[in-house]
């Protein structure tokens, strides 16, 4: 008989399998989220870039597609106040790439991100079954409001201190994000370089430090990785890159192609796209902007300033200027059928996990 | 019944448990090696810094203590030929720290390392049951000579390309060294930064790429880590830092104390001590010399030039100038009894691994 994949976390969250679809900005859709949740895992809508109305529309779309628990993810952000000089310098550095894409010189945008507090209020009102957060620490009062709305709260930690901070503020689970993970690093205590901790080393240290269930993230692409996460003491595993390659994935075909052709050494972390370290497939944009790595404005300013470039690069099918977020195990996606439906991926992952633990 | 820990590798190597004591320069002794091998794992003597006569003496000492298989590890090195100017600059950079330790200005040493080819010939003559290598790739003819002497060969790889190169040259197993690992990075194909691949992401990619058994190394401190390595497809796990804390460990008490007090964020990789990236606990030497990180002479030159400093720092009990090699899971050593005998550590690890897989 296959080993049960039930854990205290799966029971607490009311899901069948310890599989979490990582929230990925621009990489998740209501269809993906619902497919994962309907298959017995838990899907996650990346809502950080959505205004309140869009968030409501997307959550309602998820609810029209599933009655199972799902998650909505936000970035904990302060409203930025960059100086005009900082913006001018940052735009000047980007201008050669804008010119190559046929974009005119840019002016400072009117705003750099959605207002986090408005998003949070909307999320509380939406009573999502699960709310997850990264980039910062949510205050205890807000976590209480989420709990009062019936939402469970997952806090992202890249080190033990962050996990303890989330526990102290009342989170229900910790997502332990190892250095292998694709996309943005969640670090908010200490320098990001100090928290480039491999998943295999990070997960047991967080498990030992907190009384909360831990979700392991980073470098997990198949059932072997999920089984490893469980043996390390995690109660679920979060996969991002794997779901970027599913039939429900909305990402650019060139991004998917780069993931499929990637190897173990293809990714790097970079601040060049958004001002916050994030892991993606090394490309010309990262190489050319890398000389400014430490000088660029912090997230969300650099993110806002590069948005038009990344959009234009997509329209021109020029992946050398796109943000190709992917984790260090991205190349393992070649082992799967192309455009595997997300629900089928969950089923395959469950079978692989049971085989790895047998 | 506990799950069997027997793997094709344990059977090929004639050992009871899939546990390898990592070779650690200055951190292994014949007593440690024999204790691990007698307990059913496989001990490894770090011989890279030994002249031929010392290597013979140490291997004979191991043989007087065990009849079980053991391993001897060498660095694959070319004889360096630094310019006088390079040495002068490197010594100038170190002089302030030498002065703080009461050391006089240094002259260029007569030699920078043992001659690798002499070491290799001696190792072949010693007919060690297992020979392991890092820092480079051994040629196929030398691997054949080792095989003819009855030695099995383990090649260290930090990426898939290196694992394939070792396989092509005839190695019997691959040690997959993840980014979490303490001490030196073994990277010899590509830039070291590109091969900072977390163990959880690296192991399955190497397992999928080669037909050889894989030993997982990096971030493994207890049975949960060993179990995770096995579920990822590795056939054994290598632990270094854990054995640095055993009763048989010869390392400085201050080094052990720093490991015991370390946390998940305590380590960094640095070229400052030896000219090759290595992971250790962040200290003043690394911080002060860090500005020269990219300019320092390569291993073994910088290693030779800092030897006297590290020795004097030990004698003066000043860990701020010692190389405090440790992996990213070093802080987990606090969970163990201090100075646990290496044989007892193997027994505990076996029990923990079985529990994690149960």
TrEMBL record, chains A, B:
One record GO biological process: response to toxic substance
UniProt KW keywords: Detoxification, Dioxygenase, Flavoprotein, FMN, Monooxygenase, Nucleotide-binding, Oxidoreductase
Cofactor: FMN
GO MF annotations in UniProt: dioxygenase activity; nitronate monooxygenase activity; nucleotide binding
Superkingdom of the source species: Bacteria
Keyword presence, Lyase: no
Pfam family of the protein (one): NMO
Recorded catalytic activity of this chain's protein: 3 propionate 3-nitronate + 3 O2 + H2O = 3 3-oxopropanoate + 2 nitrate + nitrite + H2O2 + 3 H(+)
Family the entry assigns: Belongs to the nitronate monooxygenase family. NMO class I subfamily.
Name listed for the protein in its UniProt record: Nitronate monooxygenase
